[in-house]
Specification:
single chain, alpha/beta, Rossmann fold, 3 domains, six-stranded parallel β-sheet, 18 helices, 14 strands
Length: about 475
């Protein structure tokens, strides 16, 4: 069903662009951050394809927000995967082998590390054979394509397809249909950590990545030619260069019921990936009531969207100087259960802007904090335990994408409660510690935080029209 407002007649010279959206946080990162507006400036007709996994009606606010005389909104169903295709996906997925993810799985279930060693020997070697990746993509396009989404192409005759998640099934299916019709494709990773963990089953005509590290890894791990890869930065970070949305400290903190004169510690959970991280929030809450910290502090506890609905931190409600962030916009339409809208985005930005110290794990929250030059402490204890009750938190910091942050000594990685509060007190006394290293990380992992990443993404898309 097509949803639009006052759409004008399609002119022969007007270009048509498909944008594929499968999750709520992609809506925030891409079309709410400026990419859609930049594409509209070109005069192109935009057709947004929203995946309807749950067979729900598209929320009216999305129609009101995006559909207009230039933008059409379509709700598309998922395509069922055949048994043969599922088998192929399993085996082709082994072409990108991530030793850290496998190590975490082995550690959680206390499996034999010797078996992991043998697995590493086999699959790490297989990953290096680039020809196999190209062969798998050929098989994917040739034997597992269908005309399931052909009617949308017949209806709108797009000039280019913009896939916002290179590993999502809908994105791949739409790109395969485009390939069959000779239509060019642009895609990007939905996050900055999956290039070395997931096999890209379809290689688009142009791959957009957020930083230079990702470009090198995409060429090395995914066997995608570097001349087809363009670096743009993070579109969602464009919001951080909009000074008009920043509230003054007193107004913002008083709106949360917090004292503006107290230092603000922001602790961010990583949700279902670290179900034991509440141990850290327990320590932080307890410290507010004794003399552990050298300054009077408030604590803002930020749930992760992946398990915010479980309300794990409600137990702290009513605790003096503690605020439980409940600004998440829940969604029954998107399969990630979230859809961050403008008000939530602005709230988060002000949270980061007014934080004095950020405590979290190895997550994007670290980069968010660095965009505002905020000191970050990463905890490597009591966040994740295996089935024998052993603390395996340290393995989380072996992920490839996080190594530049550690190598550049931009954060404090702490391994005990004692180290946590020592680092907190250092930063509460002097927040400029490691500021030069934080800047180096921004340059290396964020490319440019200049408010123009969305424009660069749009330019990459339009270059193929």
């Amino acid at each position: 069903m097509a949803l639009f407002k006052g759409f004008s007649v399609h002119m022969a010279t007007q270009k048509t662009i498909f944008i594929v959206i499968t999750k709520g946080f992609i809506t925030r990162n891409i079309i709410r951050s400026g990419v859609l507006e930049e594409l509209k400036k070109s005069g192109a007709r935009i057709v947004i394809l929203f995946l309807n996994t749950r067979k729900k009606e598209l929320p009216q606010y999305l129609v009101d927000e995006f559909a207009d005389g230039q933008v059409i909104v379509e709700v598309v169903p998922p395509q069922v995967t055949s048994k043969a295709h599922r088998a192929f996906l399993f085996f082709s997925g082994l072409l990108v082998y991530n030793r850290v993810n496998r190590k975490i799985r082995y550690a959680i279930y206390s499996r034999s590390m010797f078996l992991l060693f043998l697995e590493n020997l086999l699959f790490a070697s297989l990953e290096k054979i680039g020809f196999l990746k190209k062969l798998a993509r050929f098989i994917e396009r040739t034997f597992f394509s269908s005309n399931f989404y052909g009617s949308y192409f017949d209806k709108y005759t797009p000039d280019v397809v913009f896939s916002t998640s290179v590993i999502s099934k809908l994105d791949i299916d739409v790109m395969k249909e485009a390939h069959a019709r000779g239509i060019r494709t642009v895609s990007m990773p939905k996050v900055w950590d999956n290039i070395t963990t997931r096999f890209y089953r379809y290689a688009p005509d142009k791959l957009i990545v957020q930083n230079g590290e990702m470009k090198r890894e995409a060429a090395r791990v995914q066997s995608i030619s570097s001349n087809r890869i363009v670096v743009t930065g993070f579109p969602q970070f464009d919001w951080y260069r909009r000074p008009e949305i920043i509230q003054d400290r007193e107004t913002f903190l008083k709106s949360l019921g917090l004292d503006p004169k107290r230092k603000l510690i922001v602790w961010g959970s990583t949700g279902r990936w670290t179900p034991d991280d509440g141990n850290i929030s327990d320590m932080l809450v307890k410290s507010l009531g004794d003399d552990t910290l050298i300054s009077n502090c408030s604590l803002l506890i930020r749930s992760h969207y992946s398990d915010a609905q479980h309300r794990r931190f409600d137990k702290y409600k009513g605790t003096p100087n503690v605020y439980i962030d409940e600004s998440f916009s829940n969604s029954e339409f998107f399969r990630d259960n979230t859809d961050p809208r403008r008000e939530e985005i602005i709230h988060f930005i002000n949270t980061m802007y007014h934080a004095d110290v950020v405590v979290t794990l190895c997550s994007t929250l670290t980069l968010d904090a660095f965009c505002f030059d905020k000191p970050v402490i990463n905890t490597a204890f009591k966040d994740l335990f295996n089935n024998k009750g052993e603390d395996i938190s340290t393995v989380l910091y072996e992920h490839d994408h996080y190594q530049p942050i550690l190598e550049l000594d931009s954060i404090d990685l702490v391994f005990s409660e004692k180290e946590l509060f020592e680092s907190l007190n250092i930063y509460l006394k002097d927040s400029t510690m490691k500021e030069g290293n934080r800047k180096k990380v921004l340059d290396r992992l964020c490319y440019k935080v200049d408010g123009n990443s969305s424009k660069r993404v749009a330019e990459a898309i339009l270059s193929l029209t």
